[in-house]
């Protein structure tokens, strides 16, 4: 086919398209009380008014309209309706307003003045509303309200209703208010038949008991349940729960969290971390597992508690922490380990115990007794109680019940061990949380490496007594007193029997001692976190006034008015998505589709921009406008920094408006608005400050002239 044939074919297709559009079904006047001709005010039109019996009745392609007065342009297939206007489509859509413009060619209606559109599921109210019968969509852009009885009332600046799928898309200042819940968001998708809401961008869900924040989330407004991802956080008055993924049921004030969880107790200054958690507000309980860690924040030295599972229960003034299975505790001057550790924040008592097991082969519960370390001292027993003063944050005392055993390595020889055992141990701490005094009662036995002032070994002292009291200084034995001694003697090290160097039950476990917070996890199996799935990224709505609609409007002719802002929707930028086109001036960048990704609406591939490093790269388009108010917007995603700006073309390249941007891995639309005086120079829209290794994608460049109505 040669060029002439192609041209003729294109003209033929265009002629057929225009002809078919113009041959659409004509608007039909079903009833009018009075018909007049007013060529001076309404040239080429018929003026129709109601009578005392009924309104003017108009029909077109299955839709019916009633009004008090109508201006009918028969040739243009266009009508204006005034006064108590009703537009009804089938049995489901009903719209009332003070005024409607409607074209039989475009099948687009514009309503203004107390507009109310209802269907079986919801009601839209706005001062102005567009309804596209071809696409079955309604749209407002200057504020509106949607009411759904069971879900509440939704207000937003911009709203769009897809009638066929019962879906709303709200944008900017979105607020849903129901009897018990308030939702605020920037982007909000809502299905009126199910009450399902999808939130995107900074969003909050507020109830009487909680406040949930996320930047991507779902909420069932009927059943009051939902989940949140991306910077998700729930505030339950005195507890804040954060995680990669949060599920919540506002009926029972329950929440569960998955991956990278932090639960903050704002009253008791404690934090719990892990990778799976459940929280019941009414029961004042938090359960957490997978690298569970409880942190009691203190001014000088926080306490860390780790176990396979941690359960926190009780009111704020009486929190109880239960750390079960392979539990460990650490602070800079004290650490411990047990099968289970229980802490009461009210009483200040921390209990280290072994949980009875049904399996007789459980070596941990039978042999590896609860253990604590303070400075150079290791203490074990069947059960250990650590008593603290919750007000002063000081450790007060230590109790070891049954089979108490305290060991410290001789600081000089490093081969001998000072040892004491007995039935019960009571220890007291000084103001520096150092063990100062230890009393062991009932059947006390001891082995001490005695040294003189020069730290020379005098001998090894072994004895039995009813009880022993020991004073420590900087972790070393300073002095000791035996009561009701049964026997004992001091031996030179050379004459001390090797087999007598250890008391029965001796078990030096220094290799188990946590020396840091990281050490608490060294025995844990490798952690494998589940992949969070569920919500897709936000898909921005295509423009309501898209190219296809604007073409329909042009076919309707100059008479087709709607409100004046409709005529201001033309994008002044050419090739808004084709950034390789020469209309876009480029410098210091590489533009390609080699590594392209899907556009924000997931329909097409986007262009990739990479800074080459030759200079501050930029891409721009010059617009033949010298005067006016303009809005420039574009979607961006990637890494690095850039800026968008309005700039004068030529002369001194004045910058009218600039927005600096730190790019993210999510599509985001950026926009700036400026007023340009008539300086005789054209306007240009610039994406600039593109440096070497900046790597991003762009989509939907748009420049709109904001003309006054």
UniProtKB/TrEMBL annotation:
Every Organic solvent tolerance-like N-terminal domain range: 24-185
Signal sequence interval, chain numbering: 1-21
Domain of life per record: Bacteria
Entries under InterPro entries matching the protein: Galactose-bd-like_sf (IPR008979), OstA-like_N (IPR005653)
Alphabetical list of Gene3D superfamilies matching this protein: Galactose-binding domain-like, Lipopolysaccharide (LPS) transport protein A like domain
Keywords, sorted A to Z: Signal
UniProt keyword annotation of Signal present: yes
SUPFAM superfamilies recorded: Galactose-binding domain-like
Protein name as it appears in the record: Organic solvent tolerance-like N-terminal domain-containing protein
Source organism per UniProt: Algibacter agarivorans
Lineage: Bacteria, Pseudomonadati, Bacteroidota, Flavobacteriia, Flavobacteriales
């Amino acid at each position: 086919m040669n060029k002439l044939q192609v041209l003729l074919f294109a003209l033929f297709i265009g002629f057929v398209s225009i002809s078919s559009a113009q041959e659409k079904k004509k608007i039909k006047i079903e009833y009018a009380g009075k018909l007049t001709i007013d060529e001076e005010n309404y040239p080429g039109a018929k003026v129709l008014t109601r009578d005392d019996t009924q309104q003017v009745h108009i029909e077109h392609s299955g839709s019916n309209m009633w009004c008090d007065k109508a201006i009918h342009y028969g040739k243009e297939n266009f009508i204006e309706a005034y006064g108590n206007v009703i537009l009804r489509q089938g049995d489901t859509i009903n719209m009332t307003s003070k005024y409607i413009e409607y074209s039989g060619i475009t099948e687009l209606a514009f309503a203004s003045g107390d507009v109310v559109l209802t269907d079986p599921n919801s009601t839209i109210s706005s001062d102005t509303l567009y309804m596209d019968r071809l696409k079955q969509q309604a749209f407002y852009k200057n504020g509106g309200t949607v009411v759904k009885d069971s879900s509440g009332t939704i207000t937003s600046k911009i709203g769009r209703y897809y009638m066929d799928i019962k879906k709303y898309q709200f944008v900017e200042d979105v607020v849903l208010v129901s009897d018990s819940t308030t939702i605020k968001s920037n982007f909000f998708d809502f299905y009126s038949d199910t009450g399902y809401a999808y939130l995107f961008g900074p969003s909050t869900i507020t109830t009487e008991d909680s406040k949930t924040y996320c930047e991507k989330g779902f909420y069932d407004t009927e059943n009051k349940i939902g989940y949140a991802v991306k910077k998700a956080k729930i505030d339950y008055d005195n507890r804040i729960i954060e995680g990669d993924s949060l599920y919540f049921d506002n009926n029972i004030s329950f929440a569960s969290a998955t991956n990278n969880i932090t639960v903050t107790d704002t009253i008791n200054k404690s934090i719990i971390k892990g990778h799976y958690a459940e929280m019941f507000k009414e029961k004042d309980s938090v359960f957490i597992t997978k690298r569970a860690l409880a942190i009691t924040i203190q001014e000088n030295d926080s306490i860390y508690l780790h176990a396979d599972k941690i359960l926190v229960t009780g009111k704020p003034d009486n929190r109880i922490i239960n750390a079960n299975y392979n539990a460990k505790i650490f602070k800079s001057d004290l650490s411990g380990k047990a099968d289970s550790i229980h802490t009461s924040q009210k009483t200040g008592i921390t209990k280290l115990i072994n949980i009875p097991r049904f399996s007789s082969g459980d070596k941990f519960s039978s042999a590896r007794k609860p253990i604590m370390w303070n400075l150079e001292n290791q203490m074990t027993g069947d059960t250990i109680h650590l008593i603290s003063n919750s007000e002063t944050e000081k450790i007060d005392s230590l109790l070891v019940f049954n089979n108490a055993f305290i060991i410290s390595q001789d600081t000089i020889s490093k081969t001998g061990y000072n040892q004491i055992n007995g039935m019960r141990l009571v220890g007291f701490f000084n103001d520096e949380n150092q063990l100062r005094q230890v009393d062991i009662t009932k059947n006390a036995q001891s082995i001490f490496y005695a040294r003189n002032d020069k730290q020379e070994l005098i001998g090894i002292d072994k004895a039995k007594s009813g009880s022993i009291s020991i004073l420590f200084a900087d972790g070393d034995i300073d002095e000791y007193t035996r009561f009701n001694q049964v026997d004992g003697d001091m031996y030179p090290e050379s004459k001390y029997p090797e087999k007598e160097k250890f008391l029965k039950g001796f078990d030096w476990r220094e290799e188990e001692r946590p020396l840091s917070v990281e050490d608490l996890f060294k025995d844990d199996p490798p952690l494998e976190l589940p992949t969070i799935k569920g919500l897709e990224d936000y898909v921005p709505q295509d423009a309501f006034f898209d190219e296809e609609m604007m073409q329909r409007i042009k076919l309707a002719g100059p008479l087709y008015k709607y409100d004046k802002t409709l005529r201001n929707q033309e994008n002044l930028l050419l090739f808004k998505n084709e950034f390789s086109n020469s209309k876009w001036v480029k410098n210091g960048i590489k533009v390609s589709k080699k590594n392209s990704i899907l556009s924000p609406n997931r329909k097409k591939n986007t262009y990739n921009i990479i800074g080459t490093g030759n200079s501050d790269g930029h891409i721009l388009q010059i617009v033949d406008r010298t005067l006016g108010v303009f809005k420039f917007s574009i979607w961006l995603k990637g890494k690095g920094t850039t800026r968008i700006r309005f700039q004068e073309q030529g002369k001194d390249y004045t910058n009218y408006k600039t927005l600096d941007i730190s790019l993210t891995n999510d599509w985001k639309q950026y926009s700036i608005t400026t007023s340009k005086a008539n300086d005789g120079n054209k306007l240009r829209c610039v994406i600039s400050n593109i440096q070497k290794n900046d790597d991003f994608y762009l989509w939907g460049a748009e420049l709109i002239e904001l003309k006054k109505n």
